Amino acid sequence: MKRTLIKVATFGLVLALGVNGAVYATTQESVPTASTAKLGKHHAQPITVEDVLQAQKEWGDGIVEIGKIFTAGGDYKAAASKFIDHYYAYGDGKVLFKPTRAAADQFRETKEGALSYFVTGIDKEDHGFAIQPWSKVRFENSDVDIENGDAIALGNYFFTDAKTNEEVKVEFTFGYKRAKDGHLEIFLHHSSIPYQEAH
């Protein structure tokens, strides 16, 4: 597996934990550089692999929680709206979102389109991905690349159906940037079902 690349200014060497548990040497930022300074104050803290792993766990937990609220008869649409506001960068600029189960309206450039996908709404093809519901979401990263203040993660994630306990494998590419309050938000999300050769 390739090592995760983190480009930062350095005066000290530290050890970092890789995506699949490998320990390798990397550097820790101690002074701002021209490239990091122009990114703005919300990029002052470089994104780490650990940040990405935590963001992925929280995203998965959020999907499961929306399903729980739906099952309990709660306001799942309000929960999904807050979920999108927190985890996606629609409020800060463009979001490139290609959901797994989207064919007629493949790309969701707006929060409304994303909300429709997760809990139904404006698109007839949407059946509410987050209200399946799912009992568990887990990520397996092929690699994480961190460069110029942003992170791109590529791999598979697995959704466990709360009704059948069957696990569904989906391919993903997620792009993360640091929001003004410091948490990671998604500016790129592409999902697809793994290729199956026709017989």
Q: Would you give an account of this structure?
A:
With 199 residues, this protein is an alpha+beta fold. The protein has one domain: Nuclear Transport Factor 2, Chain: A (Roll). The protein is 24% helix and 30% strand. The strands form 2 sheets. It has a 5-stranded mixed sheet, with helices on one face. A two-stranded antiparallel sheet has the order 1-2. Helix 2 (49-71) runs antiparallel to helix 3 (76-87) and helix 3 crosses helix 4 (111-119). The chain is globular.
Quick structural summary:
By secondary structure, the chain is α+β, with helices and mostly antiparallel strands.
Largest beta-sheet characterization = 5 strands, mixed
- The residue ranges in which pLDDT falls below 50 over 5 or more consecutive positions are 1-43
Count of DSSP-assigned helices: 4
CATH class: Alpha Beta
CATH architecture assignment name: Roll
Gap from first CA to last CA: 32 Å
- Gyration radius from CA atoms, angstroms: 18 Å
Global morphology: globular
According to DSSP, the number of beta strands is 7
Widest sheet: strand order? 3-7-6-5-4
The average pLDDT score comes to 78
Indicate how many domains the architecture comprises.
1
Strand content: 25-35%
